[in-house]
Amino acid sequence: MRGFRHFGMMFFCLLVFMGSTEAQLQMGFYSSSCPNAERIVQDYVNRHIHNAPSLAATILRMHFHDCFVRGCDASVLLNTTSSNNQTEKVATPNLTLRGFDFIDKVKSLLEAACPAVVSCADIVALVARDAVVATGGPFWRVPTGRRDGTISRSSEALNNIPPPTSNFTNLQRLFANQGLDLKDLVLLSGAHTIGISHCSSFSNRLYNFTGVGDQDPALDSEYAANLKARKCRSLNDNTTIVEMDPGSFRTFDLSYYRHLLKRRGLFQSDSALTTNSTTLSFVNQLLQGPLQNFFAEFANSMEKMGRINVKTGTTGEIRKHCAVVNS
Ligand code: HEM
């Protein structure tokens, strides 16, 4: 009996030990392996983002699209190299992403400083944060140590990235699949305070909502009329772009949420946030609080999103080029 208890104790200690050695993200992961890594990223962003401030929005969206498919592992950056494996990059939601060359440039600077040390997944997470901060948005913590994935499938992007036609149930399900709750859904949707959309992402709401040439009754009719007259002139317009938060699409502020309450959220997924009492009350709470409160809460949800299913320790790899797996 004593021998059995002794064995049990040792087994328990082993489990605790294994748990504690499991690699995790940590602040300043590169502080000894590449001490200037985070500085190099930040300097490059600060020097170049002002030439193209719209990159802050698209790279923030890139980080989201990366994390929702196989975790934050830079799988969104991989090029399709054979006809029998279409990667995430060519899936419909990712066709409007930009900024891949910006990520490649940062990667080349880091490879010059510390070859094969800094992952593309960490670069996306750091650039997204630094670009948002450089354009006046919130700061959030980016613990590092993510490693890069080797698999990328277009079909998985379609299954996991919420489409703009999502209703509340769909959004709740897709966020819950990633371990994110309704508060995260409301806060992270607040990223639509910056950036643009193509007409094609919402023109069904203007021209053919139920298939009989009608308009979405949940969209403010004056706003819809304006969009039709000045911007999205037909159902099939897939080139014109529209500010998602008209009047302040370059400023990270609360006006996205104000638009939601006026039924002026651009996507069905935006307006869906006002169809559920829990998310509606989060929206109201954010609007009643100061901007700093939104920034702090957004930061918490971004840090949470940045931890989704990360590969650490010995899983995955450190890609040499962000668009291709190592040979
Ligand atoms: C809740 C579900 C979401 C849906 C359905 C959704 C959908 C979309 C769509 C359709 C666009 C416009 C794409 C285009 O036509 O060019 C867009 C843009 C954008 N999204 Fe989302 N999104 C969601 C959540 C998020 C989250 C969680 C983030 C980041 C944390 C985010 C950040 C952005 C940004 C910054 C843009 C502007 C991109 C640019 O200016 O190029 N979105 N989103």
UniProtKB/TrEMBL annotation:
<feature type="binding site">
    <location>
        <position position="245"/>
    </location>
    <ligand>
        <name>Ca(2+) 2</name>
    </ligand>
</feature>
<keyword id="KW-0479">Metal-binding</keyword>
<feature type="disulfide bond">
    <location>
        <begin position="120"/>
        <end position="322"/>
    </location>
</feature>
<feature type="binding site">
    <location>
        <position position="73"/>
    </location>
    <ligand>
        <name>Ca(2+) 1</name>
    </ligand>
</feature>
<dbReference type="InterPro" id="IPR002016">
    <property type="entry name" value="Haem_peroxidase"/>
</dbReference>
<keyword id="KW-0106">Calcium</keyword>
<dbReference type="GO" id="GO:0006979">
    <property type="term" value="P:response to oxidative stress"/>
</dbReference>
<feature type="binding site" description="axial binding residue">
    <location>
        <position position="192"/>
    </location>
    <ligand>
        <name>heme b</name>
    </ligand>
</feature>
<dbReference type="InterPro" id="IPR000823">
    <property type="entry name" value="Peroxidase_pln"/>
</dbReference>
<comment type="similarity">
    <text>Belongs to the peroxidase family. Ascorbate peroxidase subfamily.</text>
</comment>
<keyword id="KW-0964">Secreted</keyword>
<feature type="binding site">
    <location>
        <position position="69"/>
    </location>
    <ligand>
        <name>Ca(2+) 1</name>
    </ligand>
</feature>
<keyword id="KW-0325">Glycoprotein</keyword>
<dbReference type="GO" id="GO:0042744">
    <property type="term" value="P:hydrogen peroxide catabolic process"/>
</dbReference>
<keyword id="KW-0408">Iron</keyword>
<keyword id="KW-1015">Disulfide bond</keyword>
<dbReference type="InterPro" id="IPR033905">
    <property type="entry name" value="Secretory_peroxidase"/>
</dbReference>
<comment type="similarity">
    <text>Belongs to the peroxidase family. Classical plant (class III) peroxidase subfamily.</text>
</comment>
<feature type="disulfide bond">
    <location>
        <begin position="199"/>
        <end position="232"/>
    </location>
</feature>
<dbReference type="InterPro" id="IPR019793">
    <property type="entry name" value="Peroxidases_heam-ligand_BS"/>
</dbReference>
<dbReference type="GO" id="GO:0140825">
    <property type="term" value="F:lactoperoxidase activity"/>
</dbReference>
<dbReference type="InterPro" id="IPR019794">
    <property type="entry name" value="Peroxidases_AS"/>
</dbReference>
<dbReference type="GO" id="GO:0005576">
    <property type="term" value="C:extracellular region"/>
</dbReference>
<feature type="disulfide bond">
    <location>
        <begin position="67"/>
        <end position="72"/>
    </location>
</feature>
<feature type="binding site">
    <location>
        <position position="193"/>
    </location>
    <ligand>
        <name>Ca(2+) 2</name>
    </ligand>
</feature>
<keyword id="KW-0349">Heme</keyword>
<feature type="binding site">
    <location>
        <position position="75"/>
    </location>
    <ligand>
        <name>Ca(2+) 1</name>
    </ligand>
</feature>
<feature type="binding site">
    <location>
        <position position="88"/>
    </location>
    <ligand>
        <name>Ca(2+) 1</name>
    </ligand>
</feature>
<keyword id="KW-0560">Oxidoreductase</keyword>
<feature type="binding site">
    <location>
        <position position="253"/>
    </location>
    <ligand>
        <name>Ca(2+) 2</name>
    </ligand>
</feature>
<feature type="binding site">
    <location>
        <position position="162"/>
    </location>
    <ligand>
        <name>substrate</name>
    </ligand>
</feature>
<dbReference type="GO" id="GO:0046872">
    <property type="term" value="F:metal ion binding"/>
</dbReference>
<keyword id="KW-0376">Hydrogen peroxide</keyword>
<feature type="binding site">
    <location>
        <position position="71"/>
    </location>
    <ligand>
        <name>Ca(2+) 1</name>
    </ligand>
</feature>
<protein>
    <recommendedName>
        <fullName>Peroxidase</fullName>
        <ecNumber>1.11.1.7</ecNumber>
    </recommendedName>
</protein>
<dbReference type="InterPro" id="IPR010255">
    <property type="entry name" value="Haem_peroxidase_sf"/>
</dbReference>
<feature type="site" description="Transition state stabilizer">
    <location>
        <position position="61"/>
    </location>
</feature>
<keyword id="KW-0732">Signal</keyword>
<feature type="disulfide bond">
    <location>
        <begin position="34"/>
        <end position="114"/>
    </location>
</feature>
<dbReference type="GO" id="GO:0020037">
    <property type="term" value="F:heme binding"/>
</dbReference>
<feature type="domain" description="Plant heme peroxidase family profile">
    <location>
        <begin position="24"/>
        <end position="326"/>
    </location>
</feature>
<feature type="signal peptide">
    <location>
        <begin position="1"/>
        <end position="23"/>
    </location>
</feature>
